[in-house]
Structure formats: structure tokens, C-alpha cells
Amino acid sequence: MDDQENVAWCPSAKPDRPEAVVLGIHADSDGLTYLDTPVPAAEAVALLPPDVIPTRVLRFAGHCYASCHQRIGDSCGLVTKTALHAPAVEDSSLPRCHLRPRCKWWQQTGADACRRCPLVVHDVRVDDELSMRIANPNVAADQV
Ligand code: SF4
Known about the structure:
By secondary structure, the protein is of the alpha+beta class. It has helices at 41-46, 54-57, 77-85, 104-109, 111-114, 129-135, and strands at residues 9-13, 21-28, 31-40, 58-63, 71-72, 75-76. The strands form 2 sheets. A 4-stranded antiparallel β-sheet has the order 1-4-2-3.
């Protein structure tokens, strides 16, 4: 159930979920600046100009829920493919991240997820073919 205290959290969630918080800020095209402490998504989104799409400038975290289209059984199919196929950051140290104790991606693939997490964007560009295949739930991990 999504409202349990020990529910796992998704680090690439939509901001409109009631529990959603800001994970980080897309400071530039190459990475994410992780917040030290979570900020409610609704508060952050309210501060943005109306013509700014929130997921273009911020990454949000929210509950990992059973009906998510990326779910494969109890696993997140998105992070499985991300860990296998997405490029990793060059810095070998892990991001300092407030979500780690409850992060689904960390629980499932550990450091392999964290080394790719800063480069993940929620709204994948249509001309980014690799990311589109990773994000497509109909593309299996061995077909990316
Ligand atoms: S994958 Fe790693 S860096 Fe990304 S949100 Fe989860 S714990 Fe934090």
C-alpha cells in the first residue's frame, strides 16, 4: 500500500502525487543537484513561472506503487534497464541524496542506480533514442 511508512520511493515520480517531494534541481544538462532535505513538490511547483514545465527543471520523488506501468512484479523495470544500459557519471562517489534509505532504485540495484541517477530525466526527449527505449515499458531489458 502506498501510504505505509515503509513504502519504497521512486526517484523519478510525477509532482502531482500528494506525497511527492523535490529530489533535486536540473542545474544543467549534465546532472542533478540533490537537495539536502526534501521539499514538498506542491510548494516548489507553486514558485515556478506558469510557462515552466516542473519536470524540466526539477526531479521529484514519490511512492513506488503497484500499478505503475514500469513495474515488473515487485521490481522496477525502469531501473533494471537504466542500470544495464544508461551511461554513468564519471565521478565514482555516490550522490549525497536524502532519498537513499527508502529509494526503490537503491534497494534494487544499489550503486549502479546511483551512478546513473543524476543523468536521468523524467521527460525523455524524443530524439534521445536510447533513453526512449529505456523508458518504454514495452521494451524488455535484453532488447534495449
Ligand atoms: S538512485 Fe541513488 S541517488 Fe538516485 S534517488 Fe535513489 S538513492 Fe538517491
